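Example record used in the benchmark description.
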Amino acid sequence: MQPLNIPSGETVFLGAPENPMDPAVIRSIAALVASRPEIVEAHLPQCYIPNAMSAPAQVLVLVFSESVQLEPTLSTIADGISLLLPQATHQDIWPMRLADEMLQAVRGADCRIFESSTAGGAAAYGQPRSTKKWWQFW
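Model output (C-alpha cells):
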C-alpha cells in the first residue's frame, strides 16, 4: 500500500460521497482507526484528484500530530483494512498532519468517522457527538 501522494498545487475535489460505503464497513474502519492512539482524526470523504486518480472514490484521511512517524501506523491500518474490505477492493489512504492546509477542506466535507477523545470528539463512527456549545453550562 502506498499512501496517496498529492503534488503541491494539484486540484483536489472533496465532498460527501453520493453512495457512501456500507455503514458496517465504516464502523469497522472507525474501530480499527480508534485502536491507534497516534491517530488524531479520520475522515472518509469522496475525493477526486484529476492527475492522480482515475475516478472519484472515498479516501480514508488519517490525521496525525506533527511528531508521529507515519509509516508503522499506515502499514498497520492498510493491513487491517485489507481484512475488512471485500477481495479485490482497494482503499486509498491519505495521511495528513494537523497543520496541513487541506485539513479544513477535509473537515468541511463532514465525513469524520473518528476523533480522538483528547480532541473532544466522539470515539468512533456512529457515536453521537456533543451538540453542547462552548458557552453552555448545562
